[in-house]
Every structure is written in C-alpha cells, then in structure tokens.
Amino acid sequence: MTVINPALISVVVVAVFGLGFVGYGRFLAGHIFKLDNNRITPAHQYEDGIDYIPTPRWILWGHHFASVAGAAPIIGPAIAVIWGWLPALLWVVLGTIFIAGMHDMGTLWASLRHEGRSMPSLAGRLISPRARALFLLIVLFLVIMVNAVFAAAIAQLFISTPESVLPYWLQIPVALTVGVLIYRYKASALMVSVLGLLLMFALLGVGIGFPMRLPQTLLGLDSKAWWVLLMLIYGAIASRLPVWLLLQPRDFMNSHMLFVGLLLLLLGLWVGHPPFSAPAINASPPPGTPPLWPLLFVTIACGAISGFHGLISSGTTSKQLDKEKDALVVGYGGAMGEGLLAMLAIMATTAGIGGVSAWNAAYGDWTSVSQGGVSHFVTGAAHFLGYLGIPDKIGSTFISVMVIAFAATSLDTSMRLQRFLLAEIGTEYRISWLQRVNVSTLIGFSACVILAFFADPEHPGQGGMILWPLFGTTNQLTAALSMLMMLTLLYKLDRARLIVWIPFLWVLVMTTWSMLLNLLHYFRVGNELLLVVGGIIMILNLWLILEGFYVLRFYVFPGLDRKDETR
Length: 567
Fold this sequence. Notes:
- This protein is an all-alpha fold.
- It is built from 23 helices and two strands.
- The protein has helices at about 5-30, 40-45, 55-70, 70-80, 85-110, 120-125, 130-160, 165-185, 190-210, 225-240, 245-270, 290-300, 305-315, 325-350, 355-360, 365-370, 375-385, 390-430, 435-455, 465, 470-490, 500-525, 530-555, and strands at about 215-220, 220.
- The protein has a two-stranded antiparallel sheet with strand order 1-2.
- Helix 11 packs across helix 14 (about 325-350).
- It starts with 5 loop residues before the first helix and ends in an 11-residue tail after the last helix.
- About 55% of the residues are buried.
C-alpha cells in the first residue's frame, strides 16, 4: 500500500500557487483588469497622512495580508478536515487560485477606479441607492460580528497560553518605534522591520519567563470578558491612529513573522515526514456533522474565498496603494499567502496532531471540533517545530503569538473599516456628525461592546459567539455580492466576464444552499435568534442580488429598453 506523503503534497501545492500567481494572476492584471501605473491612485489623489497614504507594495502587502488573514484561514481548515484532508485541500488550492485571487485583486481594482470607495458604496453607483443601503446593512453586521468574535478568540488564547500575553502587548511599542523610524527618519523599511522582528522573537523568552494572567473575577467580570473589553478598546484606538504609525509597521513585521513561521512549519514537515493521521475522505464523520456538500465551501472561507477580503481591499487597502499595478502583488499575492497558511493548517491538523488514535480522539465529536480548531492547529504546528528541535513550550508560545497577532490585525483593521462605512453612510445621507472620526469610532466601538456583552448576558464578552454560526454563509454571500459589483463594472467596460460569472454562480449557489440548510436546522432545534437573524441576512442578500440582476439584464440582453436603468 502506497503511503501518501504530506511533505511532498506541500511542495506540489507551493509550486501550484507560484504558477497561479505568474500565470493566472498576471493574466487577470493585464487582460481583464488592465492595471495601469499611469493612473493616479486614491492614495496620491487624497493623501491625508492618516488613511490615504502611498505605501511601498511589500509593506502594503504585509499590512493587507495580515488584515485579511487573522485566525480564519486556520479555524476554517482545522474544522473542515473532519470530512477528510483531500476535499479541504482541493478547495483551498482551487479556490485560492481561481476565485480568491481574482476576487481580492478585482475588488481592489474596482475601488481604485472609484476614488477608493468601498464595495457597498460602489453598489450605490453601479446598481442603485437601495442596493447601497442593503449592502451596508449586510457589511456592518458582518464587520461587527467579526470584531466581537475575534476579540473573544484572542481572549481565549490569552487564557490558554498566558506566555503569549507579554510578547503580544510589547509588540505594540516596537511597532510604533519602527513606524517612526521608517516614516519620520526615512530608515530602511526592511532593515528596521527585521530588527523589530528579532526583538519580537526575544520577547517570546520574556513571555515564557513571565506568563501573565488576569484575576479570575474582577468587578463582576471574569478574565475572558476583561480581555475582550481590552482588545476592543485597543482596536478602537488603533483604528484611530494614522496607518503608518502602528498598523503598517506592525503588519509588516507580522508578515515577516509569518514567513518565518511558515518556513519553519514547512521545514518541520519535510524533516519529520509524518504521515497523514486523518483519512483522505472521511466516510464516517461523527454524528451531528453537517454534510460536506455544501458546508465545506462556507466552513473554509478565508483560505479559499472570503467576502471580508473584498471589504478590506476596497475599504482600507485601496487608500494606500502607491501604483495601480501593485494590486497584483497586494491583492492576488495576498490571497496566495493566505492559501499557503490554510494549506499548512490542514497539514498541522491531519499530519501533525499525532497518530490515527490521537486524530480520532480530537475529531471524534462535531461540537468540540467546531469550537476547537485553533487549539488543534497549535498542537499540530508545535509538533512540526518539535521535529526541528524546538521545545514544545517555545513552539506553542510562538504559534499562539503568531495567531493572536494576525487576529488582532484583522480586529483593528476591521474596526477602521467599520469607521469608514459609518462615515460613508454620513456622506451619502448627509449626516454631518456621523462623518466625524471620533464619533464614528465611538459608535462602532459601542456596537461591538453591545454585541459582545449584552447578546449573551450569562457569558459577558462572548455574545459574538452566539451569531458566529452565521459568519460563514454571511461572509461568502458578501463575496458573491462583491463579484456582482465586478460583473457590472466589467459589462460597463465591455470586457471579458466569464471568469467572474463562473466563480460568482458557484459561490452564490453553494452559499445559498448552505444558508437554507442552516435555517432549516435552526427551525428544527428551535433556535429562534439564529433563525430570525439568518433569515434577515438571507432576504437582504437575495434582494440585493435581484437588484443587481435587474441592472445586468440590460447588458446581457442589449435589446431591452434601458430607459429606467438608473431608477
């Protein structure tokens, strides 16, 4: 019997991603989106030193990648392998190359051509004012949920790995220093960020020597609730600072840390040559496990295709792009990086977690698997590092800090995006006070706190987890909506559309199917909250898609009367 070698498969996947970038990515950039460096980007047109800042592409790549990645490309694959490693891996590879790369670069391109506007704002221009309002409602729900849930995920890691607390928080002054050195004193970005990265690695020793724990109960709140509140406060402050001061330098260092982490994990995989402990296709998943079709395609979102990426591309990244052709590296290249991380998450949870008995024990219950994806990844990744002689405590702390750093990056970037969206609402509907930075920041922060602390009074700080089952479908439907905007724009420019139509229809069908199955499940078990909220999200999405199809029909069937197209 031939044993399939995970190390060899990882080499093939890396090579395929490289071919996807130089082949399909460049084709999209040159022939579909027609990126042009002679065009002035919004970063130059509206440069303000806070949000609109022309940024070198590799620094921006680090910021963009860290913002879109977070913990999602780890959590999703770590859960999805319950159906077997092969379906998860195929979806990550094919989804990354043919859907995520196109979607991420395409939404960035669309925003660049419209003064750095977000996808909801583009819906108002390309479809109708009503479409803009519908899209804004969907996106604001998604962003608020992401903020509350990521804060809870970070809090859990702080509690389970107290050695990660000091390395994470001490990273902030290091990043501030790097930002000042690069932008105020014109120091070499690469040199300074590498030195900052070395200092961050040194801080791992500080964390291991001085693990930090909050009191179990303080002023009526447990330690997890306090960590959630502290992370939301941090996110609000970070979202208010100029991007060059904290977000860009920290994310650039985080991208270096991820490169080092990915390289070490790959080396550990290649040195240790562990076999797969999980089956290629799990013919007997645990009772209660939902069907692979279509749930696989919403369980793995980030790492294959994610609507959140389009919000980041159009909401923050487009305001920092120096040259239009940089969208290939930042947008498509960012998707490739996330696909690589998702691939390693699959390897860590199927080949690194231990033998067959260990995997069966970890993946023997659907409920525990759906809540323990990150912990399984940390365990498997630490085993990979162990093949290189790295002690388990150092390895697990390093992996935890890496996951926390990326989750926190998504948190504060998402809160900045939330501020942009609220300001756009103020601009579109002439609400002057909502356009004020401090006001929009405070409103966004308050919405996250309300969800985190009042949605589930019995578990303060964990309220976002109640709505988390809706994240996958809402996120993927948002991706479909963004591709609908891209289709409309391509029709207006009379360019090839099939490469967008196919992914759009695939994501739309799989996600709608998944949402209907989920709604039926919520009805059967009597979960009225998820049934009502999920139903509202479903109706808003379908309504918006119908609005888009109404406009698209004039392009698909040119003979129709178009007198009421701009109703």
